[in-house]
Amino acid sequence: MGICDMHSHLLPEIDDGYLSREQFIRMLNLYQLSGVTAIAFTPHIFNPYVTTNISELRETYQWARGEAESLGLQTYLGSELFVGDQETLKTIPINGRFALVEFGLSLPPPKVLERLQQLVQMHYRPLIAHVERYLWLSPKSTMLQRLRSLGCLLQTNVEAVENNLSLPYLELGLIDVIATDNHGDETLPARLMDALEKWPSVGRSMQNLW
Q1: Would you give the end-to-end CA distance of the chain in angstroms?
Q2: Domains along the sequence of the chain with CATH
Q3: Strand 38-41 and strand 125-128: pairing?
Q4: Which of the 8 DSSP states describes residue 55?
Q5: Which among 200, 150, 143, 194 is positioned nearest to 170, based on CA atoms?
Q6: Where would a tag sit more exposed on the chain, N or C end, judged by fewer CB atoms within 10 A?
Q7: Can you spell out the DSSP letters for 128-186?
Q8: Which residues, 6+ apart, have CB-to-CB distance to 118 below 8 Å?
Q9: Quick one: which of 83, 89, 73 has its CA closest to 32?
Q10: Is there a contact between 144 and 137 (Cβ–Cβ < 8 Å)?
Q11: Are 73 and 39 in contact (CB under 8 A)?
Q12: What is the pTM of this model?
């Protein structure tokens, strides 16, 4: 397939994205014009700082999928799972395969490796969201090596590519996915394609995932 934006918060009135339905349709057109061929909608779940309207999620996604299909865009419903201190990890996997996960910024969650193993045992591939943000995780750390050995993929945000925050990861070939983490910024679809043009190896990695 082409390029999928695997991390976004664009579904109207679901989490902390800030699009109306009219703005959402405009955003879809911008994605299509930029050359992105698929979008994964990944609302927050279990995030202690974000309220997510779970009761409306499926219905809103069905509407969004119909609007996207009319433009020739493939869509997936997923989630961005906050791994805190919950005993059992539950997620909505992207295309039934990828479990997008996020963590607290300062410290790793308890027994993070053992708990991510739960997702692996469910035949999901953990995808660590915006890896550049975590103060306890660095490109050459033992923890990162263990996460990679577990099969975790690493995602960085477009903004981090632009401001070089993710450069240490990119230079070591550690980034598997560049995504927008889009909460309503209409410039991000084109900027995603610009970032992938700068780092074509990541673009190839993203296409090979599917």
Answers
A1: 7
A2: 4-208 (3.20.20.140)
A3: unpaired
A4: G
A5: 200
A6: N
A7: ETTGGG-TT--TT-HHHHHHHHTT-EEEEEHHHHHTTTTHHHHHTT---EEE--BSS-T
A8: 88, 89
A9: 73
A10: yes
A11: yes
A12: 0.97
As a dihedral over the C-alpha atoms of residue 166, residue 170, residue 174, residue 178, rounded to 10 degrees, the angle is 70
- Looking at residue 190, its pLDDT comes to 98
Lookup result for tokens 């975790």: 152
* 8 A C-beta contact, residue 68 and residue 105: no
pLDDT one-digit tens code per residue, 82-99: 999 998 999 999 999 999
Look at the block and give the residue holding tokens 């014009």: 33
Helix (H, G, I), strand (E, B) or coil at 196: helix
139-142-145-147 Cα dihedral, nearest 10 degrees: -100
Rounded Cα distance, 77 and 2, in Å: 18
Q: Which two tokens stand for residue 35?
A: 């050359």
d(CA 108, CA 145): 14
Dihedral through CA 119, CA 122, CA 127, CA 128, nearest 10? 0
Beta bridge pairs of residue 31: none
**CA 3 to chain centroid:** 13
Beta bridge partners of 127: 100, 153
Which of these, 107, 157, 159, lies nearest to 128 by C-alpha position? 157
pLDDT tens digits, 35-65: 999 999 999 999 999 999 999 999 999 999 9
